[in-house]
Amino acid sequence: MADEPLVLGIETSCDETGIGIVRGHTLLADALASSVDQHARFGGVVPEVASRAHLEALVPTMQRALDEAKVTLADIDAIAVTSGPGLAGALLVGVAAAKGYALAADKPIYGVNHLAAHVAVDTLEHGPLPEPAIAMLVSGGHSSLLLVDDLTNGVTPLGATIDDAAGEAFDKVARLLGLGFPGGPVIDRTARDGDPASIAFPRGLTAPKDLVAHRFDFSFSGLKTAVARWVEARERAGEPVPIADVSASFQEAVCDVLTAKAIEACRTNGVRTLVIGGGVAANSRLRVLAEERAARHGIEVRVPRPQLCTDNGAMVAALGSRLVAAGVAPSRLDLPADSAMPLTAVSVAG
Length: 350
Ligand code: KG4
Ligand code: ZN
Description:
The protein has helices spanning about 35-40, 45-70, 90-105, 115-120, 120-125, 165-175, 185-190, 210-215, 220-235, 245-270, 285-295, 305-310, 315-325; strands at about 5-10, 15-25, 25-35, 80-85, 110-115, 135-140, 145-150, 155-160, 275, 300. By secondary structure, the protein is of the alpha/beta class. Strands 3-2-1-4-5 form a 5-stranded mixed β-sheet, with helices on both faces. It has a 5-stranded mixed β-sheet with strand order 8-7-6-9-10, with helices on both faces. The protein contains 13 helices and 10 strands. Bound molecules: 5'-O-[(R)-(carboxyoxy)(hydroxy)phosphoryl]adenosine and zinc ion. 5'-O-[(R)-(carboxyoxy)(hydroxy)phosphoryl]adenosine binds near residues 278 and 280.
């Protein structure tokens, strides 16, 4: 609707410079510049390289977003920006830019939580989120299960990874298999030709004793080590490494644990909606397994399309739009870039 607020979102927490524009629940523009290619030879994101790339990409990406939405900065009702968590230097570029635009055009500014934005983006595709919902956020930097009572007001963390994030495990395993970076998409593709039941890799934190202290937590570091040992043993024996089978079996171990714990979190909390976000939510097997298991318990699974799962500006605009609609006060112009922003804060208080 034309009278709904027009919100611009800026995302620079990792290696994607994203600028999105939404009106209400409608996505008008989602401009993205990625520095992923510049990090590939290092096998992971290099913070200084990412910060510099944001600096170079920000103004042109902003122009592309405004052009795509056919609006000018003067038309925008509010500016939202990722305040944290993320890489400190990378966040700083987005936050400084947002402040500059807000000051120049005299617009309210909302510093928002990157993880809550990953949840909010689903509303652009599937409409208002039924609350309470369980959100599972799985990316290169985080793996968390959250209880979402009111997305504009704060979310309750139920569990998180105690070591590597799910996407990090994909990236590290891809690296040891010589598949390149980022690892998720290439393992997803390679796994299609493999047998997921061929190798029994460990399921972290699923033993009865772990379920007491770490019921909704994840651990992927043992899995990564198990894959490395398995591959080494084959190489020592002079046998070829069946890349597709290793990929499929590894992917199955990750998806098995993620979906089992997510469904359990829904059932324990009497919740009938599971929303999955973050880069790993783009995984084809994760989507299928989550839907299969959820259907057995009458739970609806909502996963945004892959481009909206990985980092982007639309997610920040989507959360900003929810905050404006809920009448939440804007942040102050001295809002920080907070690399360790806790989830209890969905936006920086005004
Ligand atoms: O959300 P995101 O773009 O950035 C972070 O906030 O980390 O997530 C990137 C992560 C990377 O680790 C990448 O390997 C993983 O998401 N990823 C995938 C897939 N596509 C991206 N993991 C598994 N399967 C995929 N199809
Ligand atoms: Zn992310």
